[in-house]
Fold this sequence. Notes:
384 residues; alpha+beta; conserved putative lor/sdh protein from methanococcus maripaludis s2 fold; Elongation Factor Tu (Ef-tu), domain 3; CATH 2.40.50.100; 4 domains; 6-stranded antiparallel barrel; 4-stranded antiparallel beta sheet; 21 strands; disordered C terminus
Amino acid sequence: MKKIKLKPAAIAAIAIAVLAIAGLLVWMKSGSSPAEEKKGVVRPALTVTTVLPQRASLPVKLAANGNIVAWQEAAIGAEAAGLRLTEVHVNVGDRVRKGQVLATFAAETPRAELAQSRAGLAEAEAAAADAAGNAERARSLQSTGALSASQINQYLTAEKTAHAKVEAARALLQAQQVRLGLTDVHAPDDGVISARMATVGAVVGAGAELFRLIRQGRLEWRAEVTSQELGRITPGTTVLVTAASGARLAGRVRMIGPTVDPQSRAALVYVDLTPLPGAPASARAGMFARGEFDLGSTPALTVPQSAVVVRDGFSYVYRVNPDGRVSQMKVQSGRLAGDQLEILGGLAADGRVVSVGAGFLNDGDLVRVADAPAPAGSAAKPAR
């Protein structure tokens, strides 16, 4: 392969071209022309948009954590003892109405006992009728002396005893009727079945728990609030609760706990919950949830969130001075409402700050201020 030999003149031309390109790149990077540098003119580092801090009314929120629990739970048990469970009509998660039959026990034994009680009542009524007839005859013979006083008292006592046995037999019949009615287990209130212990075929004793019911399906949020913040909450305060599942619920404070835990120094705040319209109803008892109490609103000095630059863990804004240079100012930020950030200190209300492009500036940079974009629907001003 033949090597290409360059003449000295060509090499010199290439070197001059490379130096020219390098000088052009340096000039473009510096942003100032050689003529401007000779005259001491410095071009702006950036074109920015500025804004004045605004006075606004921002909501005051108090965040807290807690658990979602059932408002009230009802334990549904067996009242009849020694009966076999034949049917279970509901399962966990079912919604039930007050009086609905949840389970059924075998009724053969209570029916037999009821029939026996009816027979015993009929027997007692017959004996009472016979004793009443004897007592009536004894009263009619009392003035004749045909019967002694002791015999007459025996007939009268037998009448009263027979009437007492009738009442006892009637009470036993009513008890057997109630026992027969207890073979059906009814829901004591509207709600949702949260637990089921009933098993078909089991023979349970009196008082054995069969179901657990969340009354009316109502849930509540028990928020843990420190004793210092407890005084800011009152019954009726509205709350927005977000469950661990993402479900959002509207709440209202029903009651504030009467005591404070001596270990955690926190009190419970009981909040009634209502699902928001259109939100998924995925909140369940036992879930962790986070909520915000609405404590009203207070006036605040705000700037756009884009005007605040966070560096080394501190918040800064860049104020535009009359000479076109910016001053870096350390500020204390507060609440965030939309795109507006509250400034608690470090900035005067009349200090114009950079709202767009602040993240590319340093203290003392020279900037060119551009007009802020016109609001939607308004005519744009011609550029100067």
